[in-house]
Amino acid sequence: MTEDAAAGRSTAQAAGPVDFTARQNRPGKVVALHLNYPSRIAQRGRSPKFPGYFLKAGTSIARTGEAIERPAGTELLAYEGEIALVIGETCRRVSPEQGWSKVSGITAANDWGLYDLRHADKGSNLKNKSGDGYTPLGPNVIPAADLDPTKLRVRTWVNGELTQNDTTEGLVFPFGQLIADLSQLMTLEAGDVILTGTPAGSSVAQPGDVVEVEVDAPDAPGAPSTGRLVTHVAASEIPMAAYGHGPQVDDTQREEAWGSREAAGLAPQPAAASGETAGGGEGAGVGNLHYVPSTPEADRGLLTEELKSRINETAVATITAQLRKRGIDNATIDGVRPTHPGRRILGYAKTLRYVPNREDLFKAFGGGFNAQKRAMDSVQPDDVVVMEARGEKGTGTLGDVLALRAKVRGAAAVVTDGGVRDSAAVAEVGLQVYSNGNHPAVLGRRHIPWEVGGTIACGGTTIQPGDIVIGDDDGVVVVPPALLEEVIADAWEQEQQDAWVYEQVEAGHPVDGLFPPNAEWKAKYEQYRASRPNRGER
């Protein structure tokens, strides 16, 4: 071990502030990971099977309180709050079980990147990620010896507003695996730093912004913290020179830098299935990734409490009849039955598509944080996850663990025209599930999880993200959002009339001319409705 490396190790093991820009503390190498947090993977729509890395220059390291400059003529300088691992001893070819023992401490990092220059390096990220000040570290190092690596937290604030907040509990690639993987081919030296990926919420910073990152262990004794790593964003007056790659920006880069099309101020883009496996950096094609373009977000304000109340008083059969009056006959998801009879469902469609299993494709796209897991891990409250399984009953499309994840995330229900495995355990989760039956086999027997957020076919009808899904014991119907209010208004009114007709039949009147009502009976009904003190009451 060199003298500098030894100094880096001893400094990292001591709690307290560390100046990583000082020569004796500067890492020999900084290795950064592309994707690791499920929240970020769901946001990107890419599912890495193995870790992917890039290197950052030692001269990119900065201290807390320093400024980062956005070059003149560029627009997409983006922050990424991360947990940095400081290697405590030189190691080679360690196992995943040994990996964490080689870490002497953790600190906060901000993995800044200039998306305007992503095109320049085709995945190496040299110009994009290694500018001066693009890797601030600190201010304090927390000794790793007494920490649980699965119970750490990283948070980021922009001008005092919390924008990133996640924990290491569900990382796709645990820290020990990263160290083992890297040490297969390269010697990791004391003082080296590994950046372990960023959660969802990374976005673009503007000149004048103050970005702060903090890493802590809230469940550990004393709740140790790195303190806030502060970066001031400034505008440079110096543009990129003409003798190198200049900035290039398109809407794809804007969407990925800002975190979504909406945040970038772009119009929604319809979904289309695609497979992308070429290299190009995080968000630009890491090997073994499956990319699906983003889809428009549902109008989350459509289902007001008043409208929900009316929908829940209206039978699916009546809603289906009203759709038929508008020329929409094929709006029901056929063949599915509820796990919990007597319970209704209502929510926005979140779509997931399975394609028939082909062994080579399943090997590439079926494992890891695949489309099925991304769907369940990105559920929003009031979502109904609708799965296209081609009516295939010969395997399961949902089990208890993912049913629980969907419930915890706030899902209203899951609807699949395929099977459910672990059916008793799924029922115990309590989430309403409509399915085509039960089957003990795992998903991979017949399916590959393929696409989240596209237009799908389930139970013989077409469902788009954001469609309104309503279910009762009769079945499940899909209502186009644009028609929802008028369909429910007429269906609810029809329910009032049907209830009145029921009362007349119960009183002994024959159904001829009453059901449906002729002109005479319609007049009587209108008189009855006009006499009601509140037309909102039955």
UniProtKB/TrEMBL annotation:
It comes from Citricoccus zhacaiensis. It comes from the Bacteria. Residues 1-15, 263-276 have a biased composition (Low complexity). Gene3D superfamilies: Fumarylacetoacetase-like, C-terminal domain (3.90.850.10), Ribonuclease E inhibitor RraA/RraA-like (3.50.30.40). This is Fumarylacetoacetase-like C-terminal domain-containing protein. Residues 277-286 have a biased composition (Gly residues). Keywords: Metal-binding. Residues 29-230 form the Fumarylacetoacetase-like C-terminal domain. InterPro entries: Fumarylacetoacetase-like_C, Fumarylacetoacetase_C_sf, RraA/RraA-like, RraA/RraA-like_sf. Residues 1-20, 243-293 are annotated as: Disordered.
